[in-house]
Design brief:
8-stranded antiparallel beta barrel, two-stranded antiparallel ribbon, about 270 residues, about 15% helix, mainly beta
Length: about 270
C-alpha cells in the first residue's frame, strides 16, 4: 500500500513550522535593555588601614548598572570614586603622628542576589526587597602623606606622594523600595577588602636606626550609599502573570493576612 502525500498540505505544514520557529527565535532574542536598571548613588566611605586611628570618614559617589538574568539574580557592574583620608595618632602624647588624603576610584563586576524572589517568587508588587551584593574589581588611588606634630617634624611636612592599583573583593547588602514601576530608592552597605597595602600610601615606616618596619599587608574600607534606581525596560518576568500570581499566593501563605471566614454570609431578607 502506497502512502500518498498531498504536496499542497506538505508545503503548508513546512511553512507553518518555519513561521513558528522564527517567532520563537524572535521571542528569545537577547535584549540588553530588558530588565536593565541604572542607579546613581552617593554616600560616605570609612577607611581602615595602617595610617588611620581617627578622621577616617570621607565622601564617595558613583553609579551602578544591573540587568536581570534570572527572577532572583542580576548581573551587576559599578563605578565609584571619591576621597579617602585618615590620621595616625602617636601613642605617647596622643598627638597626630601622620595623616593622609587620596583620590580614588574603583570599578567592579559581580551579581545581585534577591532572596525573597527566590523564596517566594518574582512579585512586582513587593515594595521592599533586600538583596546581597558580591563583586570583584580594582581600586586605583593617588594621594599624599604628611607628618603630624607628634612626629618630631614640622606639622604638614610632606612625607611621601603615592599612587597604587590593587584588586578588591566586595560582599555586602542593600535594600530597595519601589514607589513606581520604574523608580525605586535603594541603600547599600558594601565592605571591601583590598589585596594590597598602599591605598593610604603607608606600607612601612623607618626607625631611628634606619631599619624598615613593614605594616599589615592589606587595607579595608566600607562604603555606605543611597540613590535612585531607574528601570529602562521591564524584564519578561515583570510582565508574566504566572510569576506574580505564584509569588502572591506563596507570600500570602506565610503572612498573617487570611481570607475572611464569612464567605457565605448573606443578608436576611425583610418580610
Amino acid at each position: 500500500m502506497q502512502l500518498k502525500i498531498n504536496p499542497t498540505l506538505l508545503i503548508l505544514v513546512l511553512l507553518w513550522s518555519s513561521i513558528t520557529v522564527q517567532a520563537q527565535y524572535r521571542r528569545k532574542t537577547f535584549d540588553i535593555f530588558e530588565g536593565f536598571k541604572i542607579a546613581p548613588t552617593a554616600g560616605v566611605n570609612i577607611f581602615f588601614g595602617d595610617l588611620v586611628d581617627n578622621s577616617r570618614t570621607s565622601y564617595s559617589f558613583g553609579v551602578a548598572a544591573e540587568r536581570e538574568m534570572l527572577p532572583y539574580l542580576n548581573a551587576r557592574t559599578s563605578f565609584m570614586l571619591g576621597q579617602m583620608k585618615g590620621t595616625q595618632i602617636q601613642y605617647i602624647g596622643n598627638l597626630p603622628y601622620a595623616y593622609f588624603r587620596n583620590k580614588y576610584f574603583d570599578v567592579n563586576i559581580g551579581a545581585t542576589f534577591k532572596p525573597l524572589d527566590l523564596a517566594f517568587g518574582y512579585y512586582k508588587q513587593r515594595s521592599f526587597n533586600p538583596y546581597i551584593v558580591g563583586q570583584l574589581g580594582i581600586i586605583a588611588a593617588s594621594g599624599t602623606e604628611w607628618y603630624g606634630i607628634g612626629s618630631g617634624n614640622a606639622d604638614g611636612t610632606v612625607w611621601r606622594d603615592f599612587s597604587a592599583v590593587h584588586p578588591i573583593i566586595t560582599l555586602g547588602a542593600g535594600v530597595s523600595y519601589w514607589f513606581s514601576n520604574q523608580l525605586s530608592l535603594r541603600a547599600e552597605a558594601l565592605p571591601t577588602y583590598v589585596f594590597g597595602d598602599q591605598v593610604d600610601g603607608h606600607e612601612y615606616y623607618e626607625r631611628g636606626d634606619g631599619s624598615l618596619i613593614y605594616t599589615d599587608s592589606n587595607d579595608f574600607y566600607y562604603t555606605f550609599t543611597a540613590g535612585i534606581s531607574y528601570t529602562i525596560k521591564d524584564s519578561r518576568w515583570k510582565n508574566e502573570p504566572k510569576y506574580n500570581r505564584k509569588a502572591y499566593l506563596k507570600t500570602r501563605k506565610y503572612t498573617l493576612i487570611k481570607p475572611s471566614k464569612r464567605t457565605n454570609y448573606r443578608p436576611k431578607r425583610k418580610r
